[in-house]
Structures are given as C-alpha cells and as structure tokens.
C-alpha cells in the first residue's frame, strides 16, 4: 500500500469545499434603491443626506445576506462601496439590539490592516449611523493606549481595530471580544500580505463560536479560501470588479526614461496646470521622503505618508490634501490603503510596483464617481519586467505619453521585459534581491525582484509603532523583524556568510536601519507568540 499524505489531502478537500460552498449566487437581483434593501428610516435619511440614491453592485448583493445573518465572503476592490456593504446592515441590526452593553465589551469587531483604513471605516459608520444611538471606537497603534483604555471601559457597539493594538488591549484586559455577535475582516488579503496571519488566528480563538463572520478581500488567493474554510460557516460569496479590471475612465500612460531623469520628469509633470490633485507612489518609505525633498527643492509643495510618519503627521498631510491646501501627496502602497479622497486628477507611479495587482489599486485612486483621471508610470529599464506583468494582468498596453518619441518605446524589441531587469551579476529587478536571504531591507520594505515572481510588497509597518506607557514595547514603525534563522538554518547572530550565486556577503546594519541585534522579536514583540513575522 502506497503512503498517503493525509494532511495534504484534507487541506485540498477543505479548499475545494469552501470554493464550492462559497460560489457566487446565480440568481439576479433587481434591487435599484436603498429602500428595496429594507433598511430602516434613520439609515435612509443618513444616506439621503450624503446624496446616495442607488446601491453599488457589491451593496445590492451583500446587504440582504448580511441582514439575513449569513456568513459572507465578499470579493471587491477599493472604491466599490464595500464599506457600506457591511456597515449599513450592521447598523440596522445594532439598532434592533436592545441588550445591555457590558463594560469593556463590544458587539461587533471590524479588523483592518492600517490606521488610515480604520479611521475611514469608523468615519463611514459614524456618517451612516448619525441618527442611531450606536457607539463606535477606533483602536490603532501610534497613539496613546491610555486614552483607548479609558474609552473602552464603558463598552462599545462597534470596535474598529488593527490586530496588533487590539491584542495589546486584550493582554491588558482593557477589552473583551468573547461576547460579540459579528466579526468583520476588511481587506483580508492585505492583512495576510502584512504578516497578520498569527494575530488573526489568535483573535479568532477569542471570539465566540456562534457569530456572524464577514470577509472582504480584493483578491481570492488560496490563503483566503483556507481562512474562509476555517472561520466561515456555509458562506455566501459575492464578487464584483475583478482585480484585473482598471477604471474605465483612467487615461493610462507610460514614459520610458533613465533613472537619472526621473526627478526632473516628475517635477515637469506635477508643474502642469492640469494637475489639480496628485498622488505619487514610491516603493519605499525612504524613497518617498527623497521624492518630497526633491520636489520641495524645486519649489513644489508635497508631503509624504508612510509607516515611519507619526499618526499626527499622517493625519495632517491627509487633511491638507483633502482640503486642497496640498496638491501633491507622496505615498507608499501600505500607507495609501484607506485614502478616500475625491477629485484626484493624477496618479503617478514614480516607482512601478513589482506586484501587478498593486498597479490596479494605485490607479483606482483617480477617476472615481464617474470622473476622469490620468495615471502616468515612469518606467526605467530595470522596471520593464514589472510593466510587462502589469500589461498582461490588465490585458491592455499602456499608451506612450503624448510628446514622447516613439523610438523610446522598447516594447517592440525582442525579449522586452526579460533582460531589462537583470544586471551584470544576475540580480533581477531594481536593487538587489533578498530572495533566500531571510533578511528584508533595514527600512522595513522588502526589496523588489522580478525574478521572485508575483509577490506582495510587504514589511511596511502601519501600526506597530506604538509604545505601551509603563512598559509597552517599542518597535520603530516599519522596522523589520530580525529572522531567527539565516539562509542555511543558522541562528540569528551567527557570523556573516557569503551569499552563493551572486557573490554577495551580508553587510552590517547601518545605524538606525532596523538592526536590533540584541534581541529577536516574536510576532509583534509579544513573547511566545509564534514565529517571527513582518507585523504591522
């Protein structure tokens, strides 16, 4: 009798079971107004105040199932109205819940990956529920934990939280989640990309088994299906706008140039009179700061938001950007999650993302609510493989920027997108690849490499920069966790080894670049809490 890998067989069965159980419903819906969704008068009045008349597809599909108490797996991108898809039915159910709220308890927990998204979700719930008596609290890192403990002491109906700070509060017995009736994971795929899997597992062990669970994700990777299999009960799946779909009214353009010309071309683009409000995307936090310095030297006002900025700095930059006093915002991808600003005329990819789905998320910041927008990508030779992957995913070629010499377009050349990202030593993509080294960049951003294949950019901390008052851990926001084992299984702190294949050896950490060499951190700084993660 042949040997059988029973655990692998069981995992495969679980994966296909959830895929079949959570398949999209085939029945069509004729719901065209919020009144058709059986929402209460206070919610309809709040929606009318915001001039919302018709539900989006994800709202029309999801709201009836959530009101019916079913577990749900929603596949939808940013900008599709998914927040209202769970917030409106949640508020409707809370308005009918007359049970007494106990101290330090919550009825509903909403987990999100970043501070900005947490605040955006809480603001939306407050807006929709302004005619209801519903208490909403936000707990994120980067701000005083004492104030959060004080606000949670009397209990809250809705708790919007990032996983790291929530676990800090649970450890201090400042909040309990053992009595909640609804658990919502927003942007679940992003939380997995940021290394939250162990935090999520720990949190789900603390919530009651009898609950309603809602998962919302932009994509449906295998890990999301496995999580759904573990935490959802007979779920319904609703989906709209696959991630490969870009906004129809976005004019997508590309400029091919050398790296030395990027700053001057960016400056010229942003100086244009047609640029009303622009987001510039950089791959790393230090890169974003450098772009801001270069623009300011040229007389252009700009501000950066990323994991190394304090919560106050990020809020001020976003506030100035929203009210129009700041035209240019430079952001990393993680920090940009949760930015909900109308009237963005331009998105500029100063650095092309090494994950093609990220490109779709980036340019979705413009051309919202039926408006038009322009997305411009600056592509240096090392980034050509990224452009090739983007065009394959979106099934369209980016237009050459008007005024550019057609001879500068290398896409017709043999082998385009293969040889461009490899330098003489065989390292692929911009910068050196860290594949197989077990060590990220000191600034907390993973070094991109086309040779690794599609992999989410990770490691930027959006929430673990907090410090407990009176003994709370201190982890610089965005600081990379030091792995316990090196490439060949050596424990951390072993003497430097020579990288095989590329002739490189490990360089010592520079001062201030994430090298806490005296301690190896567990997940989020908590001891005995699983293997090392790039926690946020």
From TrEMBL:
Residues 454-493 have a biased composition (Basic and acidic residues). Residues 514-526 have a biased composition (Polar residues). The keyword Cytoplasm applies. It comes from the Bacteria. Its EC number is 3.6.4.13. Residues 401-536 are annotated as: Disordered. One of its GO terms (cellular component) is cytosol. CDD domains: DEADc (cd00268), SF2_C_DEAD (cd18787). GO terms for molecular function: ATP binding; hydrolase activity; nucleic acid binding; RNA helicase activity. Pfam families: DEAD, Helicase_C. Residues 249-409 form the Helicase C-terminal domain. Residues 63-238 form the Helicase ATP-binding domain. Residues 430-453 have a biased composition (Low complexity). It catalyses: ATP + H2O = ADP + phosphate + H(+). A motif (Q motif) lies at residues 32-60. One of its GO terms (biological process) is response to temperature stimulus. Residues 32-60 form the DEAD-box RNA helicase Q domain. This is DEAD-box ATP-dependent RNA helicase RhpA. It comes from Breoghania corrubedonensis. The lineage of its organism: Bacteria, Pseudomonadati, Pseudomonadota, Alphaproteobacteria, Hyphomicrobiales.
